[in-house]
Amino acid sequence: MKRMWTLVGVWTVVLLLACGCEQNGSDSELSNSSTNSVASTNSAAADSHFPDGLHPDSAASGTIASLFNDHISASPGGIGANDPNTVVCLGDSITAAGYPGQLAAMSGKNVINQGVGGEESSGGAARVAGVLATYHPAYLCILYGANDVIGHDDPGQTIANLQAIISAARANNTIPIIATLTPMSGNYAQFAADALNLSDLIRAMASSTSTPLADLEAAF
Questions:
Q1: Are 217 and 180 in contact (CB under 8 A)?
Q2: pLDDT tens for residues 132-149?
Q3: For a tag on the chain, would you pick the N or C end, based on fewer CB atoms within 10 A?
Q4: Strand partners, 150
Q5: Contact, 166 vs 201, CB < 8 A?
Q6: Could you tell me how far CA 92 lies from the centroid of its own chain?
Q7: Of 101 and 16, which is predicted with more confidence?
Q8: DSSP the chain
Q9: pLDDT bucket at 219, cuts 50 / 70 / 90
Q10: pLDDT digit string (tens) for 109-136?
């Protein structure tokens, strides 16, 4: 009889431990599910501000403008012949149809929109000298990379182009402000990982060259 009760006790402990393990596993799965759900919700909220998967809506353009304005407000410009009240925004269609108007309202400065739809960073590097000579801006806001990623350009060359734009600005006594990329989703989701990689490279380049950074990737 004593042996029977001992066996019953052992099996009871085994069953309780098994139930506990299953319960702990369920808790872990629920926790992971909850974390993934929050991440998906945050991602969906960001993507909702880029209706076609690439171009920002008014709210997202306002965020972009605000991040550039933070550096404009913090840095006195207008060295030499440059106009302290002039800002040039150089970029692609995200700039052309996006944030410069909101930046003008926020900063109270004359903001020149030099965005060109479909342009890659190589186009900006080719245009920057003429733009600087024409407008003599105190600040140059630089937002390139989306079309480079879509065109499968070498990221190293994109960084070299952005560095050339920054160097041209500094040679003109203009303060450059470089941006990381905004999200790519929907029809552009296939480029999202490459966009994140390029943003990391831009972030590192900004740090190594002491260039003011508008970290759009982190903001969205």
A1: yes
A2: 999 999 999 999 999 999
A3: N
A4: none
A5: no
A6: 15
A7: 101
A8: -HHHHHHHHHHHHHHHHHHHHHHHHHHHHHHHHHHHHHHHHHHHHHHTTSTTSSS--HHHHHHHHHHHHHHHHHS----TTSEEEEEEEEESHHHHTTSHHHHHHHH-SEEEEEE-TT--HHHHHHHHHHHHHHH-EEEEEEE--HHHHHTT--HHHHHHHHHHHHHHHHHTTPEEEEE-PPP--GGGGGGHHHHHHHHHHHHHHHHHTT--EE-HHHH-
A9: very high
A10: 999 999 999 999 999 999 999 999 999 9
Compute the average pLDDT of residues 75-90. 83
Angle, vertex CA 143, rays to CA 138 and CA 146, nearest 5: 170
**Residue 108 in tokens:** 């109270």
Residue 74 has pLDDT above 80, yes or no: no
Are 181 and 195 spatial neighbours (Cβ–Cβ below 8 Å)? yes
Place of tokens 């009871």: 12
pLDDT of residue 126: 98
Tokens 């991440």 map to which residue?
Answer: 39
What is the pTM (predicted TM-score) of this model? Answer: 0.79
Report which of residues 41 and 136 the model is more confident about.
136
CB 136 within 8 A of CB 157: no
Q: Is 43 exposed, middle or buried (0-12, 13-18, 19+ CB in 10 A)?
A: middle
